[in-house]
C-alpha cells in the first residue's frame, strides 16, 4: 500500500467519518484510480470502525504546517 498526494486528493471530499467499506464505495462511485481502491481495501479493518479523516488512514499526510508558506509575507 502506498499513498501519494494525488491519490489522497481523491478522498478529500469523502463523507467523513466513514468506514473502510464506505470509503471504497465512495472511491468507486467517484471514479478514483484503481490504486486508491486497492489501498483502501488493503487497510486492516477488523472492527469496522469509522475513520475521522485522511490522517487516520495515511498518518504521513502533509498538513498546512508542513509547507513553508508564510501568508503574512504576501
Description of the structure:
This protein has a domain at 11-44. The chain is globular and about 45 Å long. It contains four helices and no strands. With 74 residues, the protein is mainly alpha-helical. The model has no long low-confidence stretch (mean pLDDT 87). The N and C termini lie far apart (38 Å).
Structure annotation, total helices: 4
For the biggest sheet, the summary is: none
Structural class: mainly alpha
The shape, in one word, is globular
Give helix and strand order, one letter per element, not per position: HHHH
* Cα separation of the termini: 38 Å
Summed over residues and divided by their number, the pLDDT gives a mean of 87
Radius of gyration: 14 Å
What is the number of E strands?
0
Can you lay out the helices and strands and say which pair or pack?
Layout: H1 5-9, H2 20-29, H3 34-41, H4 54-57
Summarize the structure.
The chain has helices at 5-9, 20-29, 34-41, 54-57. The chain has 74 residues and is mainly α. It is globular, with a radius of gyration of 14 Å.
Key structural traits:
74 residues; 0% strand
Amino acid at each position: 500500500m502506498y499513498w501519494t498526494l494525488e491519490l489522497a486528493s481523491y478522498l478529500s471530499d469523502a463523507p467523513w467519518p466513514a468506514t473502510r467499506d464506505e470509503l471504497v464505495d465512495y472511491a468507486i462511485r467517484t471514479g478514483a484510480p484503481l490504486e486508491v481502491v486497492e489501498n483502501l481495501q488493503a487497510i486492516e479493518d477488523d472492527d469496522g470502525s469509522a475513520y475521522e479523516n485522511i490522517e487516520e488512514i495515511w498518518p504521513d499526510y502533509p498538513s498546512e504546517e508542513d509547507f513553508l508558506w508564510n501568508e503574512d509575507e504576501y
